[in-house]
Amino acid sequence: MPMKGGNTDGYREIDRWGRGVGWIAYPEETMQRASHAVVGDDGGVWVVDPVDAPGLDDLLSEFGDVAGVVVGLDRHKRDAAAVATRHDAPVYVPQWMSGVADALDAPVERFGGELADSGFEAVRIRDSGIPPWQEVGLYHPEDGTLLVPEAVGTAEYFCAPGEPLGVHPMLRPVPPRRELSRFDPGRVLVGHGAGVDTDAAAALRDALDNARSNLPGAYGQALKQLLS
Known about the structure:
The chain is α/β, with parallel strands linked by helices. It has one domain (about 10-225): 4-Layer Sandwich (Metallo-beta-lactamase, Chain A). About 20% of the residues lie in helices and about 25% in strands. It contains five helices and 13 strands. The protein has helices spanning about 55-60, 80-85, 175-180, 200-210, 215-225, and strands at about 10-15, 20-25, 35-40, 45-50, 65-70, 90-95, 110, 120-130, 135-140, 145-150, 150-155, 165, 185-190. About 45% of the residues are buried. This is MBL fold metallo-hydrolase. InterPro entries: RibonucZ/Hydroxyglut_hydro. It comes from Halobellus salinus.
């Protein structure tokens, strides 16, 4: 399987619930880049870290009109500008995230502690220069949805054997416990792989608590994926 992209007959839908849906545009890729659309309190559809795919607009229209497209990680510009332009919507970037806005060929809006009027709280997960890593999560307290673009994931190279959710291999020595352990989500959506909607809070807690102790198994799994 290719690490990224490749041939596809269409996206694979993931994570559907009453207020949102996710998709993987290239289902056979190793990276399992996941994108999401969530409905905010304002009734608008907020598209997060999209990888474009044929038929995507039909999927989004099931939930309403696109209010904005969000870049959740400085490396996740993906197809944000293309999707935003097609829907005549701006791309939303955190106020503190650098090096992203100027690279987007679309109007950009900045946001702070909350994503506009969506009801989603913005969570600064990481803002680091070494290694370069700027990541914002989104949390809706009433819906119980926590969206984490990169720090945790379910793709095989994120997880040690037996883990339903794992910390990114680069963050396992220093997992983002302070930033994420305060949440008790009913659903965890991730930027790589399908989300977790069964015992999600326990899965998140275990991923953070066991990131270091499960590091050898996780690194072995990641190496296996790179060599396969």
